[in-house]
Write a structure and sequence with these properties.
The protein has 344 residues and is α+β, with helices and mostly antiparallel strands. It is 32% helix and 21% strand. The chain is built from 11 helices and 14 strands.
Amino acid sequence: MADAGATLQSSTGGHGTAEPIVLEGLDGGTPLGFLAGMGVQQVLAERSRTTADGAPLLSWTLLDAWRPAISGPASFDAVVDAVHEDALAWESAPILRFRYVKIEKNGARLVGGLRPPLAVLRRWLRERREAGDDTSLAYACALLCETASEPIEKAPTFEQLHEHGIEADPDAPLDHAAGRTFFDFTARNAQFLEQVEAIRGYLDRTILEVGLRSGQVDARAPRSMDWDPTADTPGAIYTGYCRGFLPVAEWLAFRALVAFPVTSKGTVMTTTACLGRRLSGEFVWPLWEGLADPETSRSLVAWPGLDRLDPHALRALGIATILRADLTKKADGYSGMFSPTRSG
């Protein structure tokens, strides 16, 4: 693991702009805002591989809330343009087009969820490897876990897969599915990848600019990943409260998930920065005030025992604070949510 503390830079000057660009529409004090800030860095880092831009540096600055600050792009508009171009480019992304057959009351249908039969998943992963599609494979490592599988109550047949144009590995099981991963909060009839694609397709440059500049909720947004813990808050509780979603933050949070890979030991699944089990655990994240390159940001998030480090160790790493939020169930007993943030 990289020596994160040694590679954090001063939060002012020396990289692209005299002052980092503060994205006041994102709140790093919430799981969604933190993931979205990481997502902005991910987008800009991928862009820098094909341009003359240097790797973007990310820090967090405490204003009215913890806001992400990016050093590297020439201006706020340059950040918006990069995120917009990236969202458009993802229209043809194979990972968002991944589908499998699910057997429902009305018959078989194609779905874009995260519980594919292992036979379908393994065939798709092999195809992506053969195509050299590193991006899809990297996101698959964060979204899908075949080693922590679970039985399928109504499994499709190879004939049904063939009827829907889905290829499968004949040597892998059809009656077991990949286990659902930590950030999949979708309800029983919602499908994760379909939700993400609906959010991506809704975005335009104006929506992105508003989301990054002010973080205003969007009452017109068509879908939500349920990563915003305030989205279900009854309007009567707060005077002037406006119900709506945060599609810009949710799209960018999805882009950040590549930095939170999933693995398992037997049937027990683990995810970077998560403790416990899916919908019965915690998400723990650091905020740092020095500028971190993409590799350093990932190292800080994945630092072993981050939640148990004493103040001296945190200072040595350049971490200003540690925050956490429960990963838990909603009242329906099935879909998930983040509980409010707490310190420590």
